[in-house]
């Protein structure tokens, strides 16, 4: 198929950016979206134009590196990551708009690459269980109820890609945070730090410039791992409890 | 099985004496190699004794010592967190935008540990035995025993961190069994065990970043190791965003930079996975051990065309219910498989291996799939001159268990397959083909995980030490975390106990030289101004490696490959085209540096494969097979680690042999008939 691509190009964080149109031809429907961009980049390299920078790594939907707003949707039209999106979701002659994640807390580094360091700093503020190496008790000495462990797992599948933030009109990272709060809060090992964790993470989230949650739900529908919206309820519940306790 | 001599004094084999010399003219014979810190005594006591004998570093002194750790996967992330907790000053580096993205995250199946929760006869000794045997008797027994010993601690540690392993109704941990063993010792988190373990290590690491013990450098790529007076004292790294060439000095350097499977271009590795850190260290004096040992996984989604950038693994559990076949007649290969009658199908694994059938070991399943396609009976799209795919057919299983039964067991895999191929595997057979997904070879290390450069330690897939010629399923995660959490922190202190080391600064001639080398290389990439992209060289290298150093290797093929790689290298340096600048984010420039290191590694892999005229584990030499076409080891000639020393630019690599002597296990020919 032949396509027209409208792509955001920006030389670096400080320079202004603009949309550029490119034509690609002979795209197979078996290609992944990123392989289609590889084709474009080979073409640009041959023409003497600098290839387009975009983030990607595992290309199997698990590392969370790839991003892209595709026709205004985070990771494009399917419920998956951009690297697992295939060209059979498009048709010959389509015009496709490709932009970086749009969020104040994710500044553009170059072209389609953004800086998601704010997510790491939210984790640093409390998204862990303090357990130094060697200090762990025997693994089966603390049983964890199966349903709670399952819920913990289901939300721990978050890949930290940032689609939730990019999709949210407020640029909120509540789904990302809620997933971590719920993952650690459902496990017995996560209880000692449960309420300081939520307070510290929310403070860091706000400090980073992410917006507040107004229950729109775009985040959950954009999430390639289908993290449910109720993790945000859990986040708010834990936060209320923490504040009542004076944490 | 059983311990041969509990005192650990009696060897069960003698040193090997190589008769053949296939690689004559390609290498220089070197002095034999001995692990200078190899432990002795009863195998079950070796690690305990060593932990006690290794000197301690006083907590007040740890604060004055600096440690560089490159890579943030299981081995690097776990080590950085643990060293930070202990109070050292740690600098951690990764090329990704976050340490959470390292490729350990993609491991699916699980992690082995000798907990014996199922009371099915598992023990440290059995895990040790299975791992040495699975590695086709080409690993060091002391290292493997230690791995089995610390395996149980890993599970404790991960649970304490909040890793959500699968659990039973009573809330206790669940296990499953995994390829090649008869006990259930694999802990898992659905098909995402690597992800959950990595997130655990990542969170522990970020906790130390917050505590100020670890300084994190994301989007940084190590491009050189700094060696001062024969000792590793730091690295040169490039800030991938600003392009700045940075010098980082330390008391000790740890490489946890993963495997080099991407030398084949197409593999299940991440796009960024590379050999550069390890190869740069090799060029500075670190020996590269058994580089030809590659594991090729039989059940991956096949290549769909020339544009393909990456291969995706499908869990090998699928072989429990799927039947593998190709058409008997070449002319049927383009037909809809559902139109090919039963009598025209060749269920070749069931035919050749009637007792094991579709469940033969990974290497056999892979090699036979290649044979069928080489005969022209492959299916799916034409890639090059052949169709590269075989059918994995669930129609019998669907008839037996119903569609619901199959859905329950494999739904996520079927979905993934459908997403990538656009075909519905409930209706038409899957197509699968083998793919490179792990390398057992890597930088040579001693029992302390120290390379042949003092002060340079290597952990995880980047080293060669624990898997011999073949790795068992669910053992990669075990080794990464064992090295990072429990082994390295206990061996590196013996080295650091000699501190303080001589003071050096950025004006030291060795540091200046390393900086200049890196700068000149970058300038050279940008100034060639030829016509071909780095990616096109990578792809061509991959074709050569896959064809001649892939599932089956032969003397003639390897010689041919070496010539082709040398030509490719010469062309690279005259015809490469990299656009953009050195002082900004430039992914083409990054790629160029990685590709040329892969090219150089590829040549060494072929020389290693040429020298090893035996078949063992993932290394199958056409010249060394039984009458039935099965792998044939030559323990009398090759029960050694091939450790290659860099022979200088344009020079020949130097081969050092480290004999593998077993005291707790007896070598046997692997059998699956």
TrEMBL record, chain A:
InterPro entries: 2Fe-2S_ferredoxin-like_sf, 2Fe-2S_ferredoxin-type, 2Fe2S_fd_BS, 4Fe4S_Fe-S-bd, 4Fe4S_Fe_S_CS, Beta-grasp_dom_sf, Helical_ferredxn, SDH/FRD_Iron-Sulfur
Signal peptide coordinates: none
Assigned keywords, A-Z: 2Fe-2S, 3Fe-4S, 4Fe-4S, Iron, Iron-sulfur, Metal-binding, Oxidoreductase, Tricarboxylic acid cycle
Coiled-coil portions: none
Entry-linked Pfam families: Fer2_3, Fer4_7
Top-level enzyme category: oxidoreductase
Biological process annotations from GO: respiratory electron transport chain; tricarboxylic acid cycle
Name this polypeptide is given: succinate dehydrogenase
Organism of provenance: freshwater metagenome
UniProtKB/TrEMBL annotation, chain B:
Protein name in UniProt: succinate dehydrogenase
Annotated catalysed reactions: a quinone + succinate = fumarate + a quinol
Subcellular localization(s) per the UniProt record: Cell membrane
Domain Fumarate reductase/succinate dehydrogenase flavoprotein-like C-terminal: 538-672
Family: Belongs to the FAD-dependent oxidoreductase 2 family. FRD/SDH subfamily.
Annotated Polar residues bias: 9-20
Keyword field: Cell membrane, Electron transport, FAD, Flavoprotein, Membrane, Oxidoreductase, Transport
Keyword Lyase (UniProt): no
UniProt-listed InterPro entries: FAD-dep_OxRdtase_2_FAD-bd, FAD/NAD-bd_sf, Fum_R/Succ_DH_flav-like_C_sf, Fum_Rdtase/Succ_DH_flav-like_C, SdhA/FrdA/AprA, Succ_DH/Fum_Rdt_flav_su, Succ_DH/fumarate_Rdtase_cat_sf
GO biological process, one term: anaerobic respiration
């Amino acid at each position: 198929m032949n396509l027209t691509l409208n792509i955001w190009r920006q030389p670096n964080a400080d320079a202004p950016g603009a949309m550029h149109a490119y034509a690609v031809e002979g795209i197979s429907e078996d290609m992944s979206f990123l392989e289609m961009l590889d084709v474009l980049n080979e073409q640009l390299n041959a023409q003497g134009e600098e290839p387009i920078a975009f983030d990607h790594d595992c290309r199997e939907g698990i590392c969370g590196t790839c991003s892209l707003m595709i026709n205004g949707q985070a990771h494009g039209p399917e419920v998956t990551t951009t690297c697992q999106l295939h060209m059979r979701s498009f048709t010959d002659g389509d015009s496709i708009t490709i932009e970086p994640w749009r969020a104040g807390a994710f500044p553009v580094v170059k072209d389609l690459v953004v800086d998601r360091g704010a997510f790491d700093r939210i984790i640093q503020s409390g998204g862990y269980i303090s357990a130094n190496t060697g200090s762990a008790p025997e693994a089966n000495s603390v049983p964890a109820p199966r349903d709670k462990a399952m819920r913990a797992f289901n939300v721990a599948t978050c890949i930290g890609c940032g689609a939730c933030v990019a999709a949210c009109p407020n640029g909120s990272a509540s789904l990302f945070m809620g997933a971590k709060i719920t993952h650690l809060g459902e496990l017995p090992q996560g209880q000692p730090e449960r309420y300081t964790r939520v307070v510290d993470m929310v403070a860091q989230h706000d400090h980073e410039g992410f917006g507040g949650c107004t229950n729109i739900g775009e985040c959950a529908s954009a999430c390639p791992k289908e993290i449910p919206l109720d993790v945000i309820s859990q986040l708010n519940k834990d936060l209320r409890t923490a504040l009542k306790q004076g944490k | 099985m059983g311990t041969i001599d509990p005192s650990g004094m009696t060897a069960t084999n003698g040193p090997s004496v190589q008769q053949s010399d296939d690689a004559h003219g390609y290498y220089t014979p070197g002095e034999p190699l001995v692990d200078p810190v190899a432990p002795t005594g009863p195998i079950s006591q070796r690690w305990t004794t060593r932990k006690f004998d290794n000197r301690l570093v006083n907590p007040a002194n740890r604060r004055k010592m600096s440690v560089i750790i490159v890579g943030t996967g299981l081995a690097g992330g776990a080590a950085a967190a643990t060293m930070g907790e202990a109070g050292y000053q740690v600098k951690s580096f990764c090329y990704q935008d976050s340490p959470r993205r390292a490729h350990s995250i993609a491991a699916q199946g699980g992690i082995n540990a000798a907990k014996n929760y199922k009371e099915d006869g598992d023990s440290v000794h059995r895990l040790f035995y299975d791992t040495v045997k699975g590695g086709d008797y080409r690993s060091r027994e002391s290292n493997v025993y230690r791995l089995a010993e610390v395996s149980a601690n890993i599970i404790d540690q991960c649970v304490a961190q909040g890793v959500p392993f699968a659990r039973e109704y009573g809330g206790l941990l669940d296990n499953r069994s995994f390829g090649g063993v008869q006990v259930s010792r694999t802990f898992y988190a659905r098909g995402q065990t690597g992800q959950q373990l990595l997130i655990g290590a990542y969170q522990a690491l970020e906790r130390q970043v917050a505590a100020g013990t670890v300084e994190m450098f994301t989007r940084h790529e190590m491009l050189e190791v700094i060696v001062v007076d024969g000792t590793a004292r730091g690295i040169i790294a490039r800030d991938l965003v600003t392009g700045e060439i940075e010098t980082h000095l330390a008391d000790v350097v740890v490489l946890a930079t993963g495997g080099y499977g991407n030398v084949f271009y197409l593999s299940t590795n991440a796009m960024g996975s590379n050999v550069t850190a390890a190869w740069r260290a090799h060029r500075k004096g670190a020996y590269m051990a058994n580089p030809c040992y590659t594991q090729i996984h039989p059940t991956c989604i096949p290549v769909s065309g020339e544009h393909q950038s990456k291969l995706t693994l499908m869990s090998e559990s699928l072989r429990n219910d799927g039947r593998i076949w190709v058409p008997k007649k070449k002319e049927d290969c383009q037909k809809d498989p559902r139109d090919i009658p039963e009598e025209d199908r060749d269920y070749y694994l069931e035919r050749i291996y009637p007792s094991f059938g579709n469940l033969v070991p990974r290497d056999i399943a892979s090699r036979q799939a290649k044979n069928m396609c080489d005969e022209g009976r492959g299916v799916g799209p034409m890639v090059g001159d052949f169709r590269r795919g075989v059918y994995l057919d669930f129609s019998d299983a669907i008839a037996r268990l119903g569609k619901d039964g199959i859905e329950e067991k494999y739904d996520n895999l079927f979905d993934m397959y459908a997403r990538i191929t656009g075909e519905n595997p409930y209706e038409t057979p899957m197509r699968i083909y083998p793919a490179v997904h792990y390398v057992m070879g890597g930088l040579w290390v001693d029992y302390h995980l120290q390379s042949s450069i003092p002060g340079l330690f290597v952990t995880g897939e980047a080293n060669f030490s624990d898997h011999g010629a073949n790795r068992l399923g669910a053992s990669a995660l075990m080794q990464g975390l064992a090295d990072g959490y429990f082994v390295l922190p206990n061996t590196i202190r013996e080295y650091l106990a000699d501190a303080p080391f001589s003071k050096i600064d950025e004006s030291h001639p060795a540091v200046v030289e390393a900086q200049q080398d890196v700068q000149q290389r970058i300038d050279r990439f940008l100034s060639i101004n030829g016509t071909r992209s780095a990616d096109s060289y990578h792809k061509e290298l991959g074709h050569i490696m896959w064809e001649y150093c892939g599932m089956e290797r032969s003397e003639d093929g390897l010689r041919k490959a070496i010539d082709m790689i040398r030509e490719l290298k010469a062309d690279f340096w005259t015809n490469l085209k990299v656009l953009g600048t050195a002082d900004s984010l430039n992914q083409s420039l990054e790629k160029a540096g990685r590709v040329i290191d892969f090219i150089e590694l590829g040549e060494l892999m072929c020389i290693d494969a040429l020298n090893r005229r035996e078949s063992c584990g993932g290394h199958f030499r056409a010249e060394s097979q039984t009458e039935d076409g099965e792998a044939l080891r030559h323990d009398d000639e090759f029960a050694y680690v091939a450790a290659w020393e860099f022979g200088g630019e344009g020079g020949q690599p130097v081969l050092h042999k480290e004999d593998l002597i077993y005291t707790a296990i007896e070598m046997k020919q692997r059998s699956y008939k």
